[in-house]
Amino acid sequence: MKRFRFNQQEIVFAVFALLFLVFSIFLNGFLTAENMLTLLQNVAVLGILGLAMAIVVIGRGIDISLIAALAVPPGLVLQMVQNGHSLPFSLLIAVLITIAFGLINGWLIAYAEVPSLFATLATGLLLAGLGQAALFQLDVVQWSQGMNGFERLGQGTILGIPTSIVMFAVACIVVAFLLRQTRWGAYIYAIGDNPYAARVTGIPSRPIIVLQYVIAALIGCFAGLVMAASVNSMPTRVFNSTLIYDVILVVVLGGIGLSGGRGGVLNVIIGTLLIGTMLNGMTIMDISYAGQNLIKGVVLLLAVITDSFLNPRNEETAQQGDI
Amino acid sequence: MNNPTKATLAALALAALTGPALAQQGLDEPFQKPFKEALAGKTVAYVPVAMNFDLTEGWYAGLKKELEPYGVKFVIRDANWNTNAGAQAVTSLITEKPAVMVVHNPDVQTYAKLLQRAENEGIYVIQINMGSAYRSSAFVGANWVEIGERQTEGVVKACEGKSNKIAIIQGALSAAASAYTLKGVENVLAKHPEIKVVSSQAADWDAAKAKAITQTVLKQNPDLCGIVGFWDGMDIGTAAAVKEAGLTGKVFLATSGGGERKGACELVKSGAFDLNMSYDVPTQAAQMAGTIKWLLSSGAKPGSIKGSEYTTLIPITKENADSPTACWNLSDLKK
């Protein structure tokens, strides 16, 4: 007899659906097309970052340095344009720095075999520190004349849909294609599921790990450009914020296990939707900041507890180092 | 004519006769030498909540420019948004005994006891822009309550004959500057019961959060007539949301900041902000430097005299945003 069981993805989706239903019925002005677009727009950058994190987590790693990749290369673009360089040249430099950064992360983790948590913690600090000490004049890098036109990446609409949502959708499609349709994607799952078995079967696991971090850094940089375009500046201090926890939350809440090998783009979308709905509903209700944190914490805790009741840990497959 | 007056006249006449003769030899001004001696070789320690933003960089550059020519040594302890690191920096400075500490408090309580100890140890403490519960030799900075009041007055005026719906975008809840500003907002709103606050949320000084909140609020209340924002660095996001909703010029956005040209005047000119209450950082820096000179040359015992210098605010609007004096350039101050 097949037992009726939920997995985390379904639980989170159920919580999201319930919350959505309650808000739609009781909250005036929640269920309008315009508000739905605002809701998505507000979490688009978080969602894009979630995709980057998902790639790394599926491959059984974690990338704490993602926010540095979000803040520093796009900040550098704004700073260089402010200093009189051309936009394409500045973008090229930023992309090169991002790739180099991803390569360093990947090399440390795949070849030097430093655990991903510590490697990316250190490199993130390094990149953010470099930005603060050498690259930026001020924490908030302002928009300048030379950037005009570029704000369309994060503002305005395409066919009536706010651009940042379109950017999130594009990123979703690209990442879904990478994970599900390419051989590299299959390798990432294999490495995440069982790295030793993957290596034995002849998968080039080290280069694939490096690739994961390079792609993650590039997506992080892309998210940063969307964010900068959307607020007309780059607040590089975002590195000191708790954004990285939100990103991990989106990924884990959506049902991508930190032990690797499971989940996909759909999980990120669900996690993002849940967070977005909560934030939007609470803003409409004008709940105080402390109250919002309390509610966020309770909802997340409930989802995680329910999951651990319904899906207890399997002692045979649980591994040392699982978070 | 009585006698003292006569004597004075006589003295004046004598002075007129002998004056030219003395001028040829030069006259020593008796107070400048002790002043120079009081400053030379002294250490001024600067503890901002973080470097790398317009306010703290501006103060630093301004203080350096004023004091270094007199042989004052400058040390900087960057707390980098970390309250603990800041408290440690202040603690270790107390043992290092600089002559003056210039302290930018992250909140009202954390440094209060330490600053009292510093003054007991013979260090002058000047608190800037964000004060603590301890009143030290001098406070130089903005009056946040006044900033909140004047911003709100601007918004209330702009709302006349409109929907009277306003939103408030606060900073971080733990920051005194944010709480004081909110008090100012409340003071004015108490006099205007017709104004309805549809949203009052904290955006943590974060432009992206401010934008998200403002977007949602504008969707719910497209007839909003004004927003009171608490810092121009954050309200870039608020302004971006207003612009995206196509409401620039219809929603009056008041904010405040240090008056740096890119962050203040240029954004007022572009229509992003309608009012930016500036606490003019170079003037603040000059007042700090003046206070340091006065304290060091006075010989007063640290903690024995206490005073405040609240900054005279500059309201930046479309009218004066073009003027060369309403705003300042960080690059000029660093020259």
Automatic annotation (TrEMBL), chain A:
Membrane topology per record: Multi-pass membrane protein
Subcellular location: Cell membrane
Keyword Translocase: no
Xref: InterPro entries: ABC_transp_permease
Keywords carried by this UniProt record: Cell inner membrane, Cell membrane, Membrane, Transmembrane, Transmembrane helix, Transport
One CC-aspect GO term: plasma membrane
Keyword Acetylation: no
Protein name: ABC transporter permease
Organism: Bradyrhizobium zhengyangense
UniProtKB/TrEMBL annotation, chain B:
Gene3D superfamilies, per the entry: 3.40.50.2300
GO cellular component: cell envelope
GO molecular function, one term: carbohydrate binding
Pfam family, one: Peripla_BP_4
Keyword Signal: yes
UniProt KW keywords: Signal
Signal peptide residues on this chain, from the entry's feature table: 1-23
Transcription regulation among keywords: no
The family this protein is said to belong to: Belongs to the bacterial solute-binding protein 2 family.
Protein name: Sugar ABC transporter substrate-binding protein
